[in-house]
Design goal:
The protein has one domain. It is built from 12 helices and 9 strands. The radius of gyration is 23 Å and the shape is globular. By secondary structure, it is of the alpha+beta class. Strands 1, 2, 3, 4, 5, 6, 7, 8 and 9 form a 9-stranded antiparallel beta sheet that branches. Helix 4 (about 75-90) runs antiparallel to helix 6. It has helices at about 5-25, 25-30, 30-35, 75-90, 130-135, 185-195, 240-245, 275-280, 280-290, 325-330, 375-385, 415, and strands spanning about 60-70, 125-130, 175-180, 200-210, 265-270, 340, 345-350, 355-365, 390-400.
Length: about 425
């Protein structure tokens, strides 16, 4: 059966009356013009780099880390091929399987779970990464003959000062990032990839996110984090190709050839103690961050995109930009030029049982080499950043994201397993 759109599947397979029952009366009342809209916001799956890295950051996230439970290398390769086929379909607005949610025989489980019936692609992107333990387990086992192909840059992140990491929410053999402008589309994608992977992988941990906390394109406004400050003003942008080549994409000679054109992904779940922060004076908040809360301008300047002044001093002899302000400590000039492409998300995971919101930032950063980017920057922040009084790092992960899938005969990780 040739792939068809989710919307065409339900209307063609059930008829108009069935479509009303499956997706609601609103979907049945769409005009012809509206029916053509779902494919207008599809992000191409194939390309030299994986989508979801420099793609303009979408509004919603579902991130998942898997443990590989099979010992069979061929089963793992088959899963990666099956995942690639499903990802290709879902990012184009189609069902995960070739048959779909409702067109199969009644006696068999459908090959799509169906909650995205009638929904457009919503700019869905799916990005895969491989963790250090896929190459060699913590006890040294090389399960799939991959140990010799592990990049030197892909080693477990060090423990930083102040870390309160939960091992059950950290690391993993394989990670998949689903970003979309509709949370149901992102959840549908991860749910179906987990379903397809049953018996080969198991979910280790996952995270939902909303309200992107960085812009990855010059056409996007800078968003705000849950502390109320603009976040990611100085982030790398998709249009800065020279900077991306220098700081984001793995270059020939950096490591094994299968990673050329790829990138390294760092995740950190950062709990924000927002009730404590909310009781802090505005002036103190701004001094800690190093930006004015209203317009996002660096301390002492007028515009959000003004270059922070790290050298001038005030009448009191103290630097205009406080010595331990987050902006100063994270700035490339204080970290040997280190830069990353960030595309994190806010999260609220209910309450903690003590009347406080379990909320914060799910930090995501892509870079050419973590040892030259994230690790030195985080060491500086962990040692000096006054924001540490208001945050807790509770999970951590590092993954090698290979280059993109080039066409129908290619699949996620093909270079690694070649």
């Amino acid at each position: 059966m040739s792939p068809v759109s989710r919307r065409a599947l339900v209307i063609g397979g059930l008829g108009a009356a069935g479509a009303v029952g499956a997706v609601g009366a609103g979907a049945a009342l769409m005009t012809a013009g509206e029916a053509a809209a779902p494919f207008s916001d599809a992000v191409p799956f194939h390309g030299p780099q994986q989508a979801g890295i420099v793609t303009p950051a979408q509004d919603r996230l579902h991130f998942v880390a898997f443990d590989v439970v099979t010992k069979d290398r061929e089963r793992l390769i088959k899963l990666l091929k099956d995942w690639t086929a499903a990802a290709t379909r879902m990012t184009a607005g189609q069902d995960a399987g070739e048959v779909g949610a409702v067109a199969g025989i009644p006696e068999a489980p459908p090959d799509d779970t169906g909650e995205a019936i009638g929904l457009p692609p919503s700019a869905l992107t799916l990005t895969i990464g491989f963790g250090p333990t896929l190459f060699r387990t913590a006890d040294g086992r090389d399960r799939f003959g991959l140990a010799a192909r592990q990049p030197s840059a892909l080693t477990a992140l060090p423990r930083f000062t102040g870390d309160t990491l939960d091992a059950g929410l950290s690391d993993g053999d394989i990670a998949i990032q689903a970003c979309a402008n509709d949370p149901q589309v992102a959840v549908h994608a991860i749910r179906n990839l987990a379903r397809i992977g049953m018996g080969v992988v198991s979910v280790r941990w996952s995270q939902l996110g909303f309200g992107r906390t960085s812009s990855t394109s010059t056409g996007q406004a800078t968003p705000r984090n849950l502390f109320g400050f603009k976040d990611g003003t100085r982030n790398l942008k998709a249009e800065q190709e020279d900077l991306l080549r220098e700081h984001l994409w793995v270059q020939p000679g950096d490591g094994p050839d299968w990673m050329n054109g790829g990138s390294y992904l760092v995740t950190r779940k950062i709990r924000m103690l927002i009730e404590t922060w909310d009781r802090s004076p505005l002036a103190e908040q701004e001094a800690i961050v190093g930006r004015h809360k209203g317009n996002g301008a660096p301390i002492g300047l007028a515009d959000e995109f003004d270059e922070p002044d790290l050298t001038s001093v005030g009448d009191d002899g103290e630097p205009i930009m406080p010595r331990v302000a987050h902006v100063r400590l994270a700035h490339p000039d204080t970290n040997n030029g280190a830069r990353m492409l960030r595309r994190g998300y806010n999260f609220v995971d209910g309450s903690d049982g003590l009347g406080r919101l379990n909320a914060g930032l799910f930090f995501i950063a892509y870079q050419r080499d973590p040892a030259k980017a994230f690790i030195p920057v985080q060491r500086s922040l962990a040692a000096q950043d006054e924001l540490n009084e208001y945050i807790r790092h509770v999970s951590s992960g590092l993954f090698a994201c290979p280059p993109g899938v080039t066409g129908a005969g290619d699949f996620w990780g093909s270079g690694l397993f070649a």
